[in-house]
Amino acid sequence: MESIVLIHRIVLCTIAGTFGIVSNIINICVFVKQGLNSSINISFFAMAITDVFRIVAVNWMNLCSSPDMQKFDVPVVFSELMYLTTGWPIGCANRITMFITAFITAERCLCIIVPLKVRKIVTPLRSVVILTIIVILNGLGLVPEYMAAYLDWKIYPSINRTRIGIKFRSNSAENEGIAFTLHAVLMSAALLCVVIFTAVLVVKLNQKTQWRLESTSDDRQRETFKTKDRKTVKMVILVAAVMVVCYTPAVMLSVVSASCPEFNVTGPLASLFHGVWTVVFVLGTVNASVNIFIYYSMSTKYKEDLKQLLQWRYKTL
């Protein structure tokens, strides 16, 4: 199990994470270039920042997982340090990304359902407020865990040394159970919202497409409508599929962690805990890294701005 953990964390996560950091920095630059004066750009910009934070935290986790780290003469048990400094912050970032995606799909639904009123309903200022609330509420979800566990000096009889490691308070089992339950509930709610809003969006787009085809007599205009809507539907389906594939295992494991006290970082099933959660971290890193391909293939505006950005950068070198 340890070898599997090392392969996934140090090799797969590091490769995907390095690409993800670069791709999300590019995304941030493109959205800034386009202007943060629309709800959709603000949301994608916030998602890119969250993904950068998440990938950096994953890479720190990978570094702590390396057997070579413990060879340094420092009084820290890195395998326990990473649990509080990376594990839970990564989970929080995952939730934030999912809720931002849910907000984006909800806003797109309004664009189809009430296209003439959506700009008055979802303004850039309201988008910033909603995104801020998403970050704060998900950040508060970390409170029970950090009330249950903390870093302090411990005696390790196996090496006859004192090191800084993780300690749990007397009410740790209860608080940790609350933390995992909150995490499972929030993850499930966000995933459910993404699926529902995406399904509604796909249905409405198909209805709009059918109406346009029936009400348009010009063959060229009819084909334009058909192609445009088909690409939008494909993008929505792709975003939903990537989200469901990457985060369904995390939701399931959160439920298991909340319902099984032995399944935790220091319990009898600690080895299995680290192994399966490592796979979840890999999937989360992949999800944070592939958005650039979706934007580039589905958005003509993004493609043009990215090419202009790269051309400008090339000329300045």
How would you describe this structure to a colleague?
- This protein has helices spanning 2-34, 39-65, 78-113, 118-121, 124-140, 143-148, 172-215, 219-259, 270-289, 291-298, 300-316; strands spanning 149-156, 161-168.
- With 317 residues, it is mainly α.
- Strands 1-2 form a two-stranded antiparallel ribbon.
- It is elongated and about 80 Å long.
- The model is unreliable at 221-225 (pLDDT under 50).
- It is a multi-pass membrane protein.
- It holds the Pfam family 7TM_GPCR_Srw.
- It is found in: Membrane.
What does the secondary structure layout of this molecule look like, with pairings?
Elements lengths: L1 H33 L4 H27 L12 H36 L4 H4 L2 H17 L2 H6 E8 L4 E8 L3 H44 L3 H41 L10 H20 L1 H8 L1 H17 L1
Helix pairs in contact: 1-2, 1-9, 1-11, 2-3, 2-5, 2-9, 3-5, 3-7, 7-8, 8-9, 10-11
Keywords: G-protein coupled receptor, Membrane, Receptor, Transducer, Transmembrane, Transmembrane helix
Membrane topology: Multi-pass membrane protein
Protein name: Lysophosphatidic acid receptor 1-A-like
